[in-house]
Amino acid sequence: MPVDEILNARMRDALSAHVGISEKRMMGGLCFFLNGSMLCGARRHQDGVGRFMFRVGKVNEPAALQDPTAHAVVHGTRKLGGFVRVDEADCKVAALLQWLHLCLEHAAALPKKD
Fold first, then answer.
1. 82 and 57 in contact (C-beta within 8 Å)?
2. Which residues pair with 7 in a beta bridge?
3. Structural domain span for residue 86
4. Residue 83's CB: how many other CB atoms inside 10 A?
5. Which residues pair with 14 in a beta bridge?
6. What percent of the chain has pLDDT over 90?
7. How many domains does the structure of the chain reveal?
8. What is the dihedral of CA 21, 7, 55, 70, to 10 degrees?
9. What are 41-89's pLDDT values in tens digits?
10. Does residue 110 contact residue 68 with C-beta atoms inside 8 Å?
11. Does residue 113 lie in a domain region?
């Protein structure tokens, strides 16, 4: 499954003002990190739908899933705690920035990784 550069460009643009951001190909797409801690990712699935994945943290996950556009992340057969996914159609600029704010707050509270 190819990495979706349109989704990745949207994510890069939204994160461009932040220091300590890095990228790594994984989980079938591209993931973004803050000081070594995963923030989010983006990929286009086999069904053709582009999806963003946000690491909101286990504490924030129940509240995040109250948003009707958010869904639990299942990788293979395993549910990933602390992560939600949102389809690209439901994640316009304002929504993307709101999700990223939650991710950045969570990751900033974690210890830096080497």
1. yes
2. none
3. 5-108
4. 24
5. none
6. 80
7. 1
8. 160
9. 999 988 889 999 999 999 999 999 999 999 999 888 999 999 999 999 9
10. no
11. no
DSSP state of 105: H
Contacts 24+ apart (CB under 8 A), 59-65: 60/102, 60/106, 64/102
CATH number of the domain that 34 lies in?
Answer: 3.90.1150.30
Q: Has residue 97 been placed in a domain?
A: yes
Backbone angles phi, psi at 80, to 5 degrees: -95, 110
How high is the pLDDT of residue 1?
A: 45
- Identify each DSSP E strand in the chain by its residue range: 21-26, 29-34, 37-44, 50-55, 70-75, 78-87
pTM above 0.90, yes or no: yes
- Enumerate the β-bridge partners of residue 87: 51
Token pair, residue 2, equals 């190819």
Q: For every residue of 73-102, which 3-state class applies, written as one string?
A: EEECCEEEEEEEEEEHHHCCHHHHHHHHHH
Phi, psi torsion values for 31, nearest 5 degrees: -110, 150
Say if 114 falls within a structural domain: no
